[in-house]
Amino acid sequence: MDRIHLWVLLVLGLILLVFSLRKPPIKDVILVFLLKAYFSTFFGVIVVEKHLLDYPVRFLGQYFDTSILFEYFLYPIMCVYFYRTSHHSSFFGIVGQCALYTAALTFVEVLYEKYTNLITYHTWTWMHSFVTIFLLSFFVRMLMKLINRWEETVRQRS
């Protein structure tokens, strides 16, 4: 049953990815996606190597100890939607939306931890997930804000 959940999540992620690529600026979407995957890799490896949590059932489990489906695909897609919905928001709007997206992701993670073998907490808790997802999502969002400002400054000088 857990493998079925993984396949359903993969299909859902593919559908969400296709819809996220339908509106410009595609450059921003791709950059957010890649930045999120890049930074979440470090945290995922550290958390699993320190045995704070495990992913007993995962894609390519013989090659990866982390959940590549979450870290390289689903979490970056979620961040793309967060970026899109908060693109013109104020600072407090960004913080509020980040908290809502993080709460939804954390809620789903807790359900999967409780009812499946996709994730097992050892010394990790839902609060750790909430804080790390929030901070990483917020960091990438602010980094994109800086990149866009820098790009606009360069464009104005040209």
Radius of gyration, taken over Cα atoms and rounded to an integer in Å: 16 Å
Largest sheet: 2 strands, antiparallel
Question: Average pLDDT, to the nearest integer?
Answer: 91
Strand content: under 5%
General shape: globular
Number of helices: 5
Give the strand order of the largest sheet, numbering strands 1, 2, ... along the chain: 1-2
Cα separation of the termini: 57 Å
- Count of beta strands: 2
The SSE order reads HHEHHEH
Q: Detail the poorly predicted runs.
A: none
Percentage of helical residues?
A: over 70%
Derived structural class = mainly alpha
Structure characterization notes:
The chain crosses the membrane at residues 6-22, 29-48, 60-83, 90-112, 124-144. Keywords: Membrane, Transmembrane, Transmembrane helix. The chain is mostly helical. The chain has helices at 2-20, 26-49, 68-85, 91-115, 126-157, and strands spanning 53-54, 120-121. A two-stranded antiparallel ribbon has the order 1-2. Helix 1 runs parallel beside helix 3, helix 2 (26-49) packs across helix 3 (68-85) and helix 4 packs antiparallel against helix 5 (126-157).
